[in-house]
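Sorry to interrupt, but I need a hand with the structure work. Could you write out one complete protein record for me, on any chain you like? Just paste the record in under my message, thanks.

. . .
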Amino acid sequence: MSAPTPHASGPSATLPPADDAALPTPVTLEPPGLAHLCDLVVTVSPALEAGQGPFGLRRVIPITGGVVRGPAMRGRVLPAGADFQVLTGGITAAHLDARYLIELDDGACIFVHNTALRHASTEDAAAIMRGDPVPPEAVYFRCQPRFETGDARWAWLGERQFIGRGERLPGAVRLSFWQVL
């Protein structure tokens, strides 16, 4: 039996060498600006845990309501939805996947799908899980909300990128969202 023949693997193995001279020169583009969209306080029930699985500790945090305030929208968070979490790195990194509805003062109903990363020290992460307050500067909590609606007045939300940051409070989450310009 003969030894296997070594071969290149990966995407570059099948590509011809790049002709850098034919490419435009890379330049750093101006960073995008931000426009404040709104702030939310989302109230939550205690976590339900599915336990430690192959990808981490699975938790579901039911969303019970809240408020939406800001220069672009005002309304309330409906008591529908949940934050589906996977905690990794022990419990220091939380990968969040929240899905819920907001109802605006003008009657529009908007579906929010907000993915986030929350990272804290072991001590601060344990405090968050117990429902204890943790100073927001001790926790990295950034998110990427996406919006869907059938209301034509708010259809532009689905045509833009948004970013945000969060703060976990006892019984609630405080969020601020910005449009990336």
The chain has a mean pLDDT of 92. The helical segments are 122-130. The beta strands are 34-44, 48-53, 56-69, 75-88, 93-104, 109-120, 139-148, 162-169, 172-180. The first strand starts at residue 34 and ends at 44.
